[in-house]
Specification:
Helix 2 links the parallel strand 2 (36-41) and strand 3 (59-63). Helix 1 runs parallel beside helix 2 and helix 7 (139-150) packs across helix 9 (180-197). It contains 12 helices and 8 strands. It has a single domain, classed as Aldolase class I (TIM Barrel, Alpha-Beta Barrel), CATH 3.20.20.70. By secondary structure, the chain is of the alpha/beta class. It has helices at 16-29, 47-54, 80-85, 96-101, 106-118, 131-135, 139-150, 156-159, 180-197, 200-204, 219-223, 240-249, and strands at 4-9, 36-41, 59-63, 90-93, 122-127, 163-166, 207-211, 230-233. Bound molecules: phosphoenolpyruvate.
Length: 251
């Protein structure tokens, strides 16, 4: 059975105090639902205290990015070894905002995926098409290309540790959610592609999330779809009540 994962990406939001209050509330309210994992991704400076606040609860902590090297002259960067050292378990890789504003490429996504896996960090690997690509009929080829490049040279045994998030760029922070039919279509394309790159039974075990304006009101329809195993949530993960609404209604 695949895990259902509800992951909150706080992006560049919340002071230490604000984030701690939200996390304390989540840690107290999230109960261990069988087969469900709740993940929160605060900004780098507060990760270590987030790990401490979440300790012993059913919430785990993710970074929003990392470098692929362990140490070195990479000013401003944070390594996978450092994330593991402070108790972080997940890392978001290749979010469209990083691709758009920080020159993240399929090549660096692949380097980061391999580095995360070698450190036993769970990579939440993002892919997604723009509205223009969708309207030009290029969505399938684009998504398949992103998946192929993200996992180039990743061994099959490591793939069991991977989480994939389908996030159509046109649905992120826009209030415009993909319909559950649209999201299901692409998540099935992703699963099929993994199946052809590895094998269908391996693909069947991978959790694929949808991201893009998810809220309490649309999570049930999304997670009822055959190939959607949870959500990567931006805006609606910032307040404990909104995020709990999603967690409580995920199927
Ligand atoms: C995201 O940034 O990953 C995201 C899905 O944002 P939002 O939920 O705000 O659309």
């Amino acid at each position: 059975m695949r895990k259902t994962i509800i992951a909150g990406n706080w992006k560049m939001n919340h002071t230490g105090e604000e984030g701690a209050a939200v996390l304390q509330s989540l840690a107290a309210r999230v109960t261990a639902k069988e087969g469900m994992e709740v993940v929160v991704a605060p900004v780098f400076p507060y990760l270590a205290s987030a790990v401490q606040i979440a300790a012993g609860s059913s919430v785990t902590i993710s970074a929003q990015n990392m470098h692929w090297k362990d140490t070195g002259a990479y000013t401003g960067e944070v390594s996978p070894a450092m994330l593991v050292d402070i108790g972080v378990t997940h890392v978001i890789i290749g979010h469209s905002e990083r691709r758009e504003y920080f020159n993240e490429t399929d090549e660096t996504v692949n380097l980061k995926v391999k580095a995360a896996l070698s450190h036993k960090l769970t990579p939440i690997v993002c892919c997604g098409e723009s509205l223009e690509q969708r309207e030009r009929g290029e969505m399938k080829v684009w998504i398949e290309g992103q998946i192929q490049q993200a996992f180039a040279d990743v061994a099959a045994e490591d793939m069991t540790q991977v989480v994939i998030a389908y996030e159509p760029i046109w649905a992120i922070g826009t209030g415009r959610t993909a319909t559950h039919e649209q999201a299901q279509e692409v998540c099935a394309i992703i699963r099929h592609k993994i199946g052809t790159l590895y094998d269908p039974s391996l693909a069947d075990g991978i959790s694929i999330l949808y991201g893009g304006s998810v809220k309490g009101g649309n999570i049930a329809a999304l997670t009822q779809c055959a190939d959607i195993d949870g959500a990567l949530v931006g805006g609606a993960s910032l307040q404990a009540d909104d995020f709990m609404d999603i967690i409580d209604h995920a199927v």
